[in-house]
Amino acid sequence: MGAVKLYKYLDFTGGLMMLHYSNLQFTNATQLNDPFDCHPSLIDFSNVPKEACGGWTPEIIEELRRDPFRRTREEVWICSLSKIYDSILMWSYYSKHKGICIGLDMEKAQKYLSRIYGKIMIGCSVVEVQYKDIVEKPDYFRDAKDFFHYQLSTKAKAWEHEQEVRLFILDPWPTYMSLLPGQNDDKGPIDWKEVRAFP
Predict the structure, then answer these.
(1) In terms of pLDDT, which residue wins out, 169 or 83?
(2) 96, exposed or middle or buried, with CB in 10 Å at 0-12, 13-18, 19+?
(3) How high is the pLDDT of residue 187?
(4) Cα–Cα distance for residue pair 33/83, rounded to 1 Å
C-alpha cells in the first residue's frame, strides 16, 4: 500500500479509546448510517435466465442467489477510513462537529492488520469505496463482476465527499467484540449486530 495515510473520524471518547487501546473500531454493515450500504438491493437478481432455473421457478432462484448477499451484510464488520482529514461534512456526523480525526500510516499499520481476526484476514481485505448511481444496478446473471466486493465497496454518489477506504472482517472472533454501554445481558438479549469489534 506504500506510505499512504488514511484517517479515522471519531467522537472525542472514541478517539481517546482508540489511542489508549491501540485498536480500530469495526461496525456491523447493518448499523452503518447509509441504509443502502452493503445492501443486497444494490444488485439486480430479477432477470433469471431459463437455463439457470433447472426445474425451479425464477422466483426461487432469485431468492437463492440473493440470500448469501443478505447473510454477508449481517456477517461483515467494517472499519471506515477516509483519504481526507478536513471535511466539514464528515465532522457533521460526529458529536455536533466536535471530535477527533486520527491519521494512520497504513504502511506501518499493515503489519498489525495481517493477522486473522475472523473468517477473513483483514490485511487482505482493504477496499476503496466506489461511488455510483445505485439506481442502475448490475445484473447478477449477465454482468461479469466480483459481486462480493461490489456489495462491500459500492455507495451512492451522494456520499462521495467521504472518500472512504474500508477494512473489513467477516464474523469477527468474540475476543474482539466489545459491548457498548447499555448492551448487557440484564437488559435482555444482546443483538450482536449492534456490538462493535475492536481488533
Answers:
(1) 83
(2) exposed
(3) 59
(4) 19
Instruction: Give CA angle at 40 (38, 41), nearest 5°.
Output: 105
Taking alpha carbons only, the member of 72, 73, 97, 75 closest to residue 86 is 97
pTM score, whole prediction: 0.84
Q: How high is the mean pLDDT of the chain?
A: 85
| C-alpha cell at position 9 | 473520524
Q: Please name the residue ranges forming H helices in 92-135.
A: 106-110
Residue 169's DSSP bridge partners are 77
Mean of pLDDT values over 19-35: 90
- Taking the CA atoms of the chain, what radius of gyration do you get in angstroms? 18
pLDDT for 186: 60
Distance CA 50, CA 70 (A): 24
Amino acid at 43: I
Tell me whether strands 130-132 and 154-156 are parallel, antiparallel or unpaired: parallel
Identity of the amino acid at 20: H
Instruction: Show the cell assigned to 48.
Output: 433469471
